[in-house]
UniProtKB/TrEMBL annotation:
This is GlxA family transcriptional regulator. SUPFAM superfamilies: Class I glutamine amidotransferase-like, Homeodomain-like. It comes from the Bacteria. It comes from Rhizobium bangladeshense. Residues 234-332 form the HTH araC/xylS-type domain. InterPro entries: Class_I_gatase-like, DJ-1/PfpI, Homeodomain-like_sf, HTH_AraC, HTH_AraC-typ_CS, INH-QAR, Tscrpt_reg_AraC-type_HTH. Keywords: DNA-binding, Transcription, Transcription regulation.
Amino acid sequence: MRPEQHRLADNSAKPAARLKVGFVLSRCFTLSAFALFVDTLRLASDQQDRSGRVLADWQVIGSTRHLITSSCGVQVAPTSDFVDPSRFDYIVVVGGLLTVENPIDQQTIAFLRQADAKKVPLIGVCTGSFILAAAGLMKRHESCVSWLHYKEFRERFPELAVRSDRLFNLDRQRGSCAGGSSAADMAALLVRKYISRDAERNALEVLQIEKARTPADIQPRRPLYDDYDDARVKAAMITMEQFVDGSMPIEKLAAMVGLSRRQLERIFIEKTGMSPAKAYNRVRMERAKSILAQSKAPLIEIALDVGFENASQFTRTFKRTFGQTPSQHRAAALRAH
């Protein structure tokens, strides 16, 4: 029985079956993401903090029983060999450092493909979506990654859909999340769908999490847009930064946040005091400003990166925005250091 098919008429009633989750840990996996996900299941599984597996069960599965080392050095031992993947309701792949070559072995890739063939939902946590994508398992599905990893995902998998404006995403037979505390949010959603709201509430209370965030919640990020309290404005501006070359049409940007162009224009004027087009230009100029201060890249290269055809056009726009030319800004940044 799939979790999306399972519904409890009464939260107090005992489910027909436990929620069963298999974890695949990559080499140098992120310990916090794994711990938050599995602990949400543990705390939702029974009452009075006895760590029983009454309502949920989980295994760390692997091709060997060798210890798997996390990115912080803590090691975790697999608790199960590969079994029929249909024994699990979900298989969660926990990623980690992107610099690691072959984060999982060929036997594990074969196991994930077998799970896909048997219609077992696969979830990529942290950079686990990179692992699923590399295995050819994210075609026709949208990946949610941290904004820190968005550019690298697009470079590695240009043909795949990806977003970084949300905490996590559930896209049919796939799930993905940015990692960190969003792993608990995703686990809480599974608990609510498969077990009950009471179980979800119990887990979050013990974890000292006030409430679970939803897939529509925006990723916390560096405070470039902290002055704006509208989630649609934040999501739109994050998308602008992802397409910092200016290639995202305003109409499409509006559609991505569920608005018409006219509605987006009105909200931007109300919340930011400028149009979406002007905000987009500001985002591009802020990126150029950052590159100027941190690199020795030629002006033409920076101009092309932020969507200008030539250095002179870029220079005029930069001076109009910041009151100084790119060269003057770079010289001032060098003096400051």
